[in-house]
Amino acid sequence: MKGKARQANIELLRIVVMVMVVVLHYLVKGGAAISLAENFTVINVMLWLVKALCIAAVNVYVLISGYFLLEAKWKTSRLVNLWFQVMFYSIGVPLVCFFLEAGEVKQWGVYDWINVLFPVQMEHYWFITAYVVLYLLVPVLSAGVKQLSKTQHKWLIAGLLLVFSIPKTVIPIGIPTDRYGYDFGWFICLFLIASYIRLYGIPVFKRKRVSFAIYLVAVFGIWGISIVCALLSRKGLSFTHMMDMAYCYNHLLVLVAAVALFYTFQYIRIPQGVVSNIICKISSYTLGVYLLHENLAVRSQWQYWAGIESVRDGVGIFAHMLVTVIAVFIAGVIVDCVRDCIFKAVIQAWEKIFAGKIAENKI
Question: Is the pLDDT reported for residue 1 higher than 50?
Answer without folding.
Answer: no
